């Protein structure tokens, strides 16, 4: 008996080959990882609106209109191994999260923020403001500028902006520069600052964030290429030198002076002081009552020096601090307690070092602090 057409189809070699090719293709599709191109597309998609309020906080979320239904919470797959933080941050479209604890609003700060040349569609902003009258005023002024910027030129708009309000008031009665820098106020003030920084970081750090730039609200002048310049060093933690412009009466002209003394190289004297301290005591820099004899980056400036010169540091200030997001994801945060007798940003540098991440400084590269 000759075979029927149906049985021929079952044993046709072409059908078998096609079935095998389809099976292999399906298995490859399921188990393969996205290419670098796919990863960069994911990063570019970070500028789109989030579908739901529970989406990653680094994406903007727009509330639906009254006649619209809420979209179901999305399930998103992130390939964190494809996320880069490199010396070519802008070319690779790496996203930057700029975080600012803000007790007072300075228009000069906002204007300088807008002048940053890094593509704003790759920048997310996060702010945390204290409870109380001063915080209310600062929040109102900030929201006015946010509304103006986000409804203005597309090139100036940021990918997302998050504003947090603390549930506690500042431990200081006033935010004046004189009061902020009194020695007796430092432990309580910087512990409160640490808690604010940690709350802001843990709330806003998203799975697409490559870099975190900590920028104080009273930093009013930086190079427009600040992000590109700092990222080009490809360091896990890097800080520029923070100075202040002022009128020098002796010289009869404008001059500059060091402002932030928290970026330093440790000394045997400071280490010996720490060994004699109680477990909750902290070392502070820049006070004659506590002479540590550390090498301060503020005094490493070279006239007409190379702005790209690097020095390794043991402590860092937070006025303008660029951190690879991986450092924070590894657990490096700002201790609000004595951590090896260090607190806040200096304690952060120590914690990052214990996790294997080194800190670096640029003694000849400047940002400028507001002068009250």
From TrEMBL:
Q: What is the first-listed, main subcellular location in coarse terms?
A: Golgi
The protein's location, in the record's own words, is:
Golgi apparatus membrane
Question: What keywords tag this UniProt record?
Answer: Glycosyltransferase, Golgi apparatus, Membrane, Signal-anchor, Transferase, Transmembrane, Transmembrane helix
Matching entries from Gene3D superfamilies are given as:
Spore Coat Polysaccharide Biosynthesis Protein SpsA, Chain A
One GO MF annotation is: alpha-1,6-mannosyltransferase activity
Q: Which GO terms describe its biological process?
A: cell wall mannoprotein biosynthetic process; protein N-linked glycosylation
- Asked if rRNA-binding is a keyword of the record, the answer is no
Q: Which top-level group of life is the source organism from?
A: Eukaryota
A cellular-component GO term for this protein: mannan polymerase complex
The membrane topology noted for this protein in its Swiss-Prot or TrEMBL record is: Single-pass type II membrane protein
What are the TM regions of this chain, as residue ranges? 12-31
PANTHER family per the UniProt record, alphabetical:
MANNAN POLYMERASE COMPLEXES SUBUNIT MNN9, MANNAN POLYMERASE II
| Similarity comment | Belongs to the ANP1/MMN9/VAN1 family.
Name the UniProt record assigns to this protein: Alpha-1,6 mannosyltransferase subunit
Which organism does this sequence originate in?
Answer: Rhizodiscina lignyota
Taxonomic lineage per UniProt? Eukaryota, Fungi, Dikarya, Ascomycota, Pezizomycotina
